[in-house]
Amino acid sequence: MASSATVNPTDIIKVRQQLRTQTPGARANAFWSVGVEMARKEGIRSLAGGMSASMLREVVYSGIRMGTYELFKDKLHDASNGALSREGLPLKIMAASIAATIGSALANPADLVKGASFLRPLPYRNMRHAFATIYRDGAQAAIAAGTLSVAGGLRSLYRGVGPTTIRGIVLSGTQICSYDQIKQSLKKRGVMQEGVPLHFVASTFAGFFCSVTSNPVDVIKVRLMNDKNHQFKGAFDCVRQIMVNEGPFGFFKGFGMCWARLGTHTILTFLIYERVRYLFGIEAM
């Protein structure tokens, strides 16, 4: 939550960039141009939009994926009777993927509201109004189609859950696993010892790796979540349209802000995470 609050302005700018469809590299879509334009036209407070939804999302998403990672490592290691080595990447990737799948899927409604809170004009008065409106719109559409209103409301809240979950798996698979692996390698080779410097170095590399791998999925997720006019038939159609209309670099729109946000977020998360473990007498990750 602390990490998310710190990088919230970069997250807003990143979403605004990803929703734009100018030619890749156009100056008007540069992160500094988008940020300055927001501050000038909407006020500096616009860079703090969606804070409550971001906090709720982190409690569910990061709480589960970070909190259950080592639990699943232990469970998978025991289930394999030691065939999956604790030092190997397969065990780490599998554990991170399971934890991220659960966390990102459950957090999708908060993620949806968070993305909508970054838009202008604001589509909702507050977070409660956002959840209620999204659910009601889905329920009304379901009634009109002759199906259950509850199913329609839930389906509306879970719009884009596929790309959200895939992004969560990709991000956690590179972020948590690379942090774990880099930290383990540096300690094993005697380059660094357990402590803040080691946590900082490992999280810095992890932040870059997960920014590269998650940005394309993030672009698709943002487009689908904000596709109120049903421009896309699904994730694959979204990929096709981006490729045709914007080219391969369209998948890396907002990468500067993605790295600034996710890199900073990763460093702060692991530094705080390791410190909290230490304060509660838990062994370092």
From TrEMBL:
Cellular component GO terms, alphabetical: membrane
Asked if the Swiss-Prot or TrEMBL record annotates the protein with the keyword Glycoprotein, the reply is no
Q: Topology versus the membrane, per the UniProt entry?
A: Multi-pass membrane protein
The cross-references to Pfam families, in alphabetical order and at most eight, read: Mito_carr
Instruction: Work out whether the entry's keyword set contains Transit peptide.
Output: no
Q: Which UniProt keywords apply?
A: Membrane, Repeat, Transmembrane, Transmembrane helix, Transport
Query: Where does the protein principally reside?
Result: membrane
Localization of this protein: Membrane
Q: Which domain of life is it from?
A: Eukaryota
Q: InterPro entries of this UniProt entry?
A: MCP_dom_sf, MCP_transmembrane, Mito_Metabolite_Transporter
Solcar repeats (start-end): 1-75, 87-185, 194-279
**PANTHER family referenced in this protein's UniProt entry, alphabetically:** MITOCHONDRIAL DICARBOXYLATE CARRIER-RELATED (PTHR45618)
Similarity section? Belongs to the mitochondrial carrier (TC 2.A.29) family.
**Under what name is this protein listed?**
Transporter
Organism expressing this protein natively: Ganoderma sinense ZZ0214-1
